[in-house]
Amino acid sequence: MVRAAVLPAVNAPLQVTEIDLPEPGPGQVRIRLAAAGVCHSDLSLSNGTLRQPAPAVLGHEGAGTVTAVGPDVTSPAPGDQVVLNWAPSCGSCHFCGLAEPWLCANSGLAAHTSYATLAADGSDLYPGLGTAAFAEETVVPAHAALPLPEGVPLTDGALLGCAVLTGWGAVHHSAQVRPGESVAVFGVGGVGLATLQAARIAGAGTIVAVDVSPEKEELARSAGATEFVLAGDDTAKRIRKLTGGHGADAAVECVGRADTIRTAWSATRRGGRTTVVGIGGQDQKVTFSALEIFYFGRTLSGCVYGNSDPARDLPIIAGHVRSGALDLSALVTERIGLDGIPDAFDAMVAGKGGRALIVF
Known about the structure:
Helix content: 25-40%
Largest sheet: 7 strands, mixed
Order of helices and strands: EEEHEEEHEEEEHHEHEHEHEHEHEHEHE
Number of strands: 18
Strand content: 25-35%
Distance between the termini: 15 Å
Structural class: alpha/beta
Shape: globular
Radius of gyration: 20 Å
C-alpha cells in the first residue's frame, strides 16, 4: 500500500488515502519519492483548466530513488537517484525531429493510461501529467526518470523537474537574455523565483519583479530582483521609468492571466521580447491592435517547459547549483506533508509564498 493524495474528480477536494501500486511493467520504473513540489499546474489540473482524467494522483515536480525496474529497462537502475520528467520526449514525432522536444506530440500519453488502483474499491487511477508525484511512490516510464545531477541534494532536486527548468529556459532559451539587458518578471511564485535567479545568472542589469503581494518583495530581491513593483494600473509605466523610459528588453509572465500578459507586453520596449510561461484558461482573452503590433515590433511567445531539453539543460543548471549561483532552497517557502496540499493550493490562489515542497 502507498499513501497518495487523490483527486476524485475535477473541482473535488483532494483525499489522502491508500492506493495499490503495481510493480513496474515493460519499460517502467518504480520510484520512492523524496520530495515533490506543489505547482500551479497541479491546481490547473484539479480545477479543469488543464485536462486530466480522474480519479488521479497529481504531482509532477518530484525526485526520488528507483526501487525496481521492469523488463527491458537498462537505465536507470535500482538505487539510482532521479528527477521526474513530466514531458518526456519520444524522439520520433515531428517536433522531436525538429529538435523541439518540449513540444513532443507523445509526451502526454502516460497521463491518459491508468497506472494504479484505489485500495478501497479497486477503481482505476490516472497519473497526473504522467508522473503522479503526490504519493510516497510512483511508477513511470523509464525515460521519464532523469539522473539527478551530481552535487544536487535529492530533496531540493525535485524543483529541477518543473520550476527551475521552466524559469531557466524562459530566460535562456525563449527570451534569450543577454548580459546587461533589463528583465521584468511578473509573478513571484516558484517559477517566478527561478526566473529571477536565471536572469541574474544570465547577467541581466535591471531586474524588475512584479507581484500583487507586497510580502513578496523580500523573496524577489533575495532571488536577484534589483527592483520590486507592486502590481497596479500603472505597472507598465513604472517599469518603463525603471528601464530608462524604454521598457524592459525582456518580460517573462509567470501568472497566466490576460491582464498580466497584456501588461507584460506593454512593459516591454520596442523590439523587445515578451515570454508567456503562465498557463491561463480558455476564457482569458488578450487583445492587441494591428497598429501596435506593427509599431512596437515586439515578439510575443509562449514557452512550454522553458523550451528546455532536460538532458541538455540539467547538467548546466546543476553546475550553477554546485557553484552556489543557483539556490534551490530559496524557492521553497514551506515544507509540508501530503495533508498540506489543499492549503498550498489555497496559498497559490491567494498569491502567497513561493514553492511549497512536500517532503516524504
